[in-house]
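Q: How do we represent a protein-ligand complex in a form that can be generated token by token?
A: Start from the inputs.
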Amino acid sequence: MEPRKPLTLHRLRAMHAAGEKIAMLTCYDACFARVLDDAGVDVLLVGDSLGMVLQGQPSTVPVTLDEMAYHVQCVARGNRSAWVIGDLPFGSYHASLAQAVDSAARLMQAGAHMVKLEGGGWTAPIVAALVERGIPVCAHLGLTPQSVHALGGYRVQGRDDEGADTLRRHAAELGAAGAAMLVLELVPSALAAELATTLPMPVIGIGAGVGVAGQVLVLHDMLGLTPGRPPRFVRNFQQEGGAVDAAIRRYVAAVKDGSFPDESLHGY
Ligand code: KIV
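Then emit the structure tokens for the protein with 3-methyl-2-oxobutanoic acid bound:
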């Protein structure tokens, strides 16, 4: 089979403009990077969820920039053509613009093509500073796990009018600051679909319904490896059996044809 052309921001924007759904998964090591890339995953997110998934931490808060840089390096070594996003961990962009620029530079030098950060309007000047310096940024709104203690748990965001308006305002501010992608986590489907059609950048949902530009899941969740009951928005793509790469291909196909997520099973 022809090796696929490396995904670029330009190509991701073209996919978005053409209405082709973007398939994203978290990835933390070189071995899975190769499997996911070969199975056609468009975007590998080196998420700070690795704190919970790999390290057994109770939240993503303890994850450090050194740890993120290490895992970005591992993924970059295994990957050939997918777009790689590195998560800026808690505390690595909160103190100042200078700190945010230094932290983002670490992840870009480790092999990321884009960095992701969590939070609303207060992050807009950070997004603008990074974009000005040639660092593409993915914003992250809705349930932002680094703020789990302030949010009072892992709950759906933007359910009431005030919460929905705040989300709309923050999303517009981040778009104006130059964010090239937005992850929306645990947001009612109707609000997510509205934002996906009004914002200029591709909106990638996790627990945000099907009316967005693409989907992301935590790799270990969609392979059924995470202990305990999975969140409602997760589908176990390994349940049908077969090899891991077959499960990943089923995920990519279901995202692309819009059969995942199924609102009746995975929606809010
Ligand atoms: O860290 C992560 O894996 C994430 C996804 C859940 C979107 O931010």
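The CA atoms of residues 2 and 231 lie 37 Å apart. The mean pLDDT is 96.
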